[in-house]
Design brief:
This protein has 2 domains: about 240 residues, Rossmann fold (3-Layer(aba) Sandwich); about 190 residues, P-loop containing nucleotide triphosphate hydrolases (Rossmann fold), CATH 3.40.50.300. It is built from 22 helices and 10 strands. The strands form 2 sheets. A 5-stranded parallel beta sheet has the order 2-3-1-4-5, with helices on both faces. It has a 5-stranded parallel beta sheet with strand order 7-8-6-9-10, sandwiched between helices. Helix 12 packs across helix 20. The chain is elongated, with a radius of gyration of 28 Å. It starts with 12 loop residues before the first helix and ends in a 10-residue tail after the last helix.
């Protein structure tokens, strides 16, 4: 990929003076058009060899364009807050809104390349990261972003020559550090790893441009002209994108779905409910304080039919937790700030740190539910969303988050009953709106959308739990039990959980099933706290 950048490209001063004035005017005019339209964010990635002109080119762009609508993002070692979240989290936060340009001096490519060079990342793991990056960039493009990736190349001899030139001048010698000298010694390894990554990520929707970094005028005009041509093409094409999406939805031939198959007659009487609610809330409180949970986080996703009891279920979970440990995020229509970013941005910002819990009252699944049914996005948008949501949850899980997802289902008759109760109860009237009645008229469409959602996004790391919610007692206990059992399984099976068991990595009771000893210990703690020294027994649902 680097051959054409090694043939000695150069621009003389006369050509420079001829090209640059028109280029600057074109960039400013097009930048203003994009700002006024406020539909396209521009993401520019700057990578390459030391002393190949990366910083100098960024300064040129600031000189040629309006800096009010530019931002430069540079990334050092991750902070503690960043290490507690998915690898991509700090890049998600830095994306420019629509109408602005973000220049990334280093990006999501920096860490995998560095880790592979150091031998900390196997080739198969590198390729997995690369696949995630390709899917992430496809999502950005599908969300309307213009993604431009520049790699500034220098030969090994060219890099040596540039370093010697800088070192020979007292005014520039400070720019050469021991780190630069060390990286020069590893030039061949760097070139090999970078070449592999660039080949794997040179996609049709976000291709790499290799720039010869040996001549300052050549590289500045090259980047400026590519940027101008890309901006003009984007202005001309508008929002038309051409990247892969998911296969079309196929309706069920016999009309049966995972939702119609639910038994909504399941109930739990008040006596059993009181006992089990206390038990599972107590266990949840203990698990949230478990030392092993300090290395994990919990994300609860609550979706369901209107009036199915999402809010009530969340309140009963929160009642068992320390208020300093959790956050409830109610999701409504996106704000103007949120609409200027990729669809997932408003959820990225609420990803919890390790040891914390975030409960989403409605979530990112709105894209394949209400936006699909109400036509708030195109079919292309909600079709591609399935894989993007799976990718997002996969990254959450890889970062240590435990993702539990609930769909609360009630019958149409039960929904009507609850709507009427809300209308008659003064302190519940705010819960019922004209929109709820309109949604009820589209019951069949919402049910099909929900069934499709479960089929396409219930994964091994983030499965859906379908909750029969005609009886609120039964639904609340099932949700609490599911969260507790998932936490127990994750804490007992995670590296952090295993480390907490003993130096040999085995459970105290080696003849018991994995997690049995810890569960018994947790149950005894809960029983003692709730009922003194009496024994607490689980009831049957």
């Amino acid at each position: 990929m680097f051959e054409s950048a090694e043939i000695g490209h150069a621009i003389n001063k006369a050509t420079w003076r001829k090209i640059v004035p028109d280029l600057r005017v074109g960039l400013l005019d097009t930048q203003f058009e994009l700002k006024e339209a406020a539909k396209v964010p521009v993401v520019i990635l700057i990578h390459g060899h030391d002393f190949a002109g990366k910083d100098e080119t960024i300064r040129v762009l600031y000189d040629w364009m309006d800096p009010h609508f530019l931002s430069t993002l540079a990334f050092a070692k991750p902070t503690e807050a960043e290490r507690d979240r998915p690898v991509m989290w700090r890049y998600w936060q830095a994306l420019p809104p629509k109408g602005r340009t973000g220049i990334f001096a280093g990006s999501w490519y920096s860490d995998p390349i560095e880790q592979r060079i150091k031998g900390h990342l196997a080739l198969t793991d590198l390729d997995a990261r690369v696949d995630q990056i390709n899917r992430f960039e496809a999502m950005l493009v599908n969300e309307g972003a213009l993604v431009l990736k520049f790699w500034f190349h220098l030969t090994k001899d060219g890099q040596k020559k540039r370093m010697k030139l800088l070192e020979s001048d007292p005014h520039t010698a400070w720019r050469v550090t021991d780190g630069h000298r060390k990286r020069l010694k590893g030039y061949d390894r760097f070139q090999d790893v970078a070449g592999h990554v660039l080949r794997m990520t040179n996609t049709a929707w976000a291709p790499w441009l290799i720039v010869d970094g040996s001549d300052s005028r050549y590289r500045a005009i090259t980047v400026g002209q590519v940027l101008l041509d890309s901006l003009r093409q984007r202005v001309a094409n508008g929002d038309n994108q051409d990247t892969p999406v998911a296969p079309a939805i196929r309706p069920s031939v016999d009309g049966r779905t995972v939702l119609t198959a639910l038994n909504l007659k399941k109930k739990l009487d008040d006596t059993a409910y009181a006992d089990q609610l206390a038990y599972w809330q107590g266990l949840l409180a203990e698990l949230a304080r478990d030392p092993r949970f300090a290395h994990r986080s919990l994300i609860g996703v609550f979706e369901g039919v209107d009036a199915a009891g999402k809010g009530g279920a969340i309140r009963h979970i929160a009642a068992a937790l320390d208020a300093r440990q959790f956050q409830i995020v109610p999701v409504a229509s996106p704000t103007e700030e949120e609409r200027a970013q990729p669809y997932l941005w408003r959820f990225w910002r609420h990803v919890p740190r390790c040891g914390r819990i975030t409960l989403f009252d409605r979530s990112w699944y709105g894209r394949v539910l209400v936006e699909r049914v109400e036509g708030f996005c195109s079919e292309r948008d909600w079709l591609r969303a399935y894989s993007e949501l799976n990718d997002f949850e996969h990254e959450l899980s890889n970062a240590g988050a435990i993702v539990v997802k609930f769909w609360l289902q009630i019958s149409q008759a039960e929904q009507l009953k609850r709507f009427k109760v809300r209308e008659k109860t003064p302190f519940k009237r705010f819960k019922i709106t004209e929109e709820d009645w309109r949604n009820r008229d589209k019951w069949a469409q919402y049910q099909q959308a929900a069934a499709d959602m479960v089929d396409r996004t219930s994964t091994g790391t983030a499965p859906w739990t379908l909750v029969e919610s005609n009886d609120k007692n039964y639904a609340r206990v099932k949700i609490l039990q599911t969260i507790c059992e998932r936490l127990l399984a994750e804490l007992n099976g995670s590296p952090a959980g295993q480390a907490a068991l003993g130096d040999d990595g085995l459970h105290p009771d080696r003849n018991a099933e994995p997690g049995a000893a810890e569960r018994k210990l947790a149950e005894r703690k809960v029983a003692k706290r709730i009922h003194g020294n009496s024994t607490l027994k689980k009831g049957k649902k």
